[in-house]
Design goal:
Strand content: 15-25%
Number of domains: 3
CATH class of the largest domain: Mainly Beta
Largest sheet: 10 strands, antiparallel
Structural class: alpha/beta
């Protein structure tokens, strides 16, 4: 803990040093002698129009807030780097995917979808996961989500989806929530959403951390090698720490206790030197096998089951630097799936095809014009030259007489570059057919993969989905909407539909789901990585605690890569029975169990009734959220009194060594859903 505190102090000193020895000027460089008072006609007189500094300062303030993103408004970002494990030259010419000697700078933004910029972060929602690779061939943007499928198959329906999801227009309610009539009416009447809605109602929609969720490119892209051969590809991000979530009651409380929970978690991890790691995985299909599956590989409402198309892990993304300025970087970054480099191209996925238009159009509005690529966070690291000129917020000062192609005045520069020298060439694919507004017959199966997803869930995940849908539909006002959704669910699982119907006081549905037994174990979070690294453990202590024992446990926690934070009745130093001291990080007033992954309860010899009451509540709440609980001495007695002892994930061994090992194993396991709720 001391090393991390000294690191924070160094960061503070560095930021303070950056502000030293600077002379205040206007935005145009005029030095200022005064910044406290506006220019007036007399001390009590009116402000004068000639006060250029006042006008500049106020005008800039008036325009500090740019229009927020229509979706993904609430987000947070970090810088990093990407390292390639092995060359992929048999699939692509993209330099950052073929040269293992390079480290490619990156910028990654995580986000919620539905809420405004000011909404809380623990909404039940899809999470955005977008990474900008600053390659030497130009920027490549991998713009995805933490769920591999989407609600719709064709981008023309995207405005309908978002209009249904956003607060209802007649009253502006609810914020950052899908638990209302218009959203579920959309789901029931656009049943291509059947697969996605199960993902959205699963535990993945309330992740424990940005650091503990998968990322997916969602759409089908194409890799092209130097011979011009194409392979269809889907992109994945696999988190080093595994995929973990919160429970719903916990998430709602976190929103009240710390609405910035996810961004704070990411920021603090990087500041503490616990750099965030994801592996880049590729699912690759030879174009000759495009039609050999029982689903259409271009359908964005379908996964490519990992058991049928394995994920090849090809490199590592490390997030190792926080933003210096949230507005300049996090808010002004502009992603676009059309930002590709030679060797990466597009498929005919109809959702992707629409995204290639909408992202540029959105950035033009949000960032004030066509020059958003010149904002520092969006600038490529390689040189860029073309004949585009002027427009709002132009920063490049172009020289020369000509700004057109072809020309003789500049010897036809900037010149185009042939493919063999690295110029981008679109994949040559034969396309023919009549102009129609239609959807492929192969896209019309809406339930087989929804059934596969349901079949693949653990019992806990199924219970979470059942309760989530029951909660959301319970917030809908229209009985007809509830009935339609239950009817749709009966095409997936009779058990699911009947459970939800019973909770809503509706008749059991009559439809019968298809008898599909296919599963994909990779879809279940029960099969994820379990690690204690960076887990936050609340340690409840009081004056006179057993110093030898606690010191041993804290050393074990630190060795396992977890973080212990001390709770007591007041801040400051707490002395043990052997003179060992620790510093309290929180009181029961400033911290809560929902902000931690586990609890270690110790207490002390002389506890007030107030301390006991608060500590017992703290521990019981963690227990009810299925978290690991360790206890010795007074804490052990409290657990026995409350009937928690002997339950899964409750560690109360008297042997110090075995207690420490067992407790760390429990912390790594994250949750104990088979625990009896007492």
């Amino acid at each position: 803990m001391s090393d991390k505190k000294s690191r924070k102090q160094e960061q503070l000193e560095r930021f303070t040093a950056d502000d030293r020895d600077k002379e205040m000027t206007t935005n145009h460089g005029t030095k200022l002698s005064e910044d406290e008072f506006s220019l007036k006609a007399g001390e009590r007189g009116p402000t004068l129009m000639e006060d250029f500094h006042f006008r500049e300062k106020i005008t800039h303030f008036d325009h500090e807030r740019i229009p927020e993103r229509a979706v993904h408004a609430r987000g947070y970002s970090a810088h990093g780097e990407f390292e390639l494990y092995e060359s992929l030259e048999q699939y692509t010419t993209a330099d950052f995917l073929t040269d293992t000697s390079k480290k490619t700078p990156t910028f990654t933004r995580f986000s919620t979808v539905a809420g405004s910029k000011g909404s809380a972060e623990l909404a039940r929602d899809v999470r955005g996961f977008a990474t900008k690779f600053y390659t030497e061939e130009g920027n490549f943007d991998l713009v995805g989500n933490n769920i591999p499928v989407f609600f719709i198959q064709d981008a023309i329906k995207f405005p309908d989806l978002v209009h249904a999801l956003k607060p209802e227009p007649h009253n502006g309610i609810p914020q950052a929530a899908s638990a209302h009539d218009t959203f579920w009416d959309f789901i029931a009447n656009n049943q291509e959403s059947a697969h996605m809605i199960l993902w959205a109602m699963s535990p993945r929609s309330i992740p424990r951390s940005f650091r503990m969720m998968e990322g997916f490119g969602v759409n089908t892209f194409r890799l092209v090698n130097k011979e011009g051969k194409g392979h269809l590809v889907k992109f994945h991000w696999k988190p080093k720490l595994g995929v973990h979530s919160l429970v719903w009651d916990e998430a709602q409380k976190v929103n009240g206790k710390n609405p910035d929970f996810h961004r704070a978690d990411l920021y603090e991890a990087i500041e503490n030197g616990d750099f965030v790691e994801f592996e880049l995985g590729l699912q690759i299909i030879d174009e000759g096998d495009e039609h050999s599956f029982d689903f259409d590989v271009l359908d964005p409402t379908k996964v490519w089951p990992e058991e049928e198309v394995p994920v090849k892990r090809v490199g590592k993304l490390t997030l190792n630097r926080n933003v210096d300025n949230v507005f300049a970087e996090n808010e002004q970054v502009a992603f676009h799936p059309g930002h590709v480099v030679p060797g990466i191209d597009f498929s005919n996925d109809p959702l992707l095809q629409g995204r290639l238009f909408s992202y540029t159009d959105t950035q033009l509005t949000r960032l004030g014009g066509p020059n958003f690529h010149e904002i520092p966070i969006n600038r490529p690291v390689c040189p860029f030259h073309n004949n585009q000129r002027d427009g709002m917020h132009r920063m490049t000062i172009n020289r020369g007489q000509s700004s057109y192609h072809n020309n003789s005045l500049a010897d036809n520069h900037p010149r185009t570059v042939p493919p063999e020298e690295g110029g981008f060439e679109h994949y040559q694919e034969k396309v023919e057919g009549e102009k129609v507004r239609a959807r492929s017959e192969s896209f019309k199966d809406h339930f087989s993969q929804a059934i596969m997803f349901w079949n693949s869930m653990s019992e806990h995940e199924k219970g979470h989905i059942k309760d989530a849908i029951s909660f959301e539909l319970g917030k809908c006002q229209q009985t007809a909407v509830r009935e339609q959704v239950v009817d749709m669910l009966s095409n997936i699982s009779g058990d699911l539909a009947s459970y939800v119907a019973d909770n809503l006081g509706l008749a059991a549905p009559q439809n019968q789901a298809e008898n599909i037994t296919k599963t994909s174990p990779a879809l279940s979070m029960a099969n994820t990585v379990q690690s204690p690294e960076t887990r936050k453990i609340a340690v409840l202590l009081a004056e006179g605690f057993n110093g030898e024992e606690v010191q041993g446990v804290l050393d074990g926690i630190d060795k396992a890569g977890a973080d212990a934070e001390i709770f007591s009745t007041k801040l400051g130093k707490i002395k043990a029975d052997n003179g060992y001291t620790v510093e309290a990080d929180h009181t029961f007033l400033t911290g809560d169990s929902v902000l931690f992954d586990a609890v270690y309860v110790v207490g002390g010899p002389d506890l007030s009734e107030s301390y006991k009451m608060k500590a017992k509540y703290f521990t019981k709440e963690a227990y009810m959220h299925f978290k690991p609980v360790g206890a010795t001495h007074d804490g052990k007695d409290w657990l026995e009194e409350a009937g928690m002892s002997g339950q899964p994930g409750v560690i109360t061994s008297d042997d110090l060594e075995s207690f420490g090992e067992d407790f760390i194993k429990a912390v790594a396991a994250h949750r104990f859903f088979d625990r009896e709720l007492v």
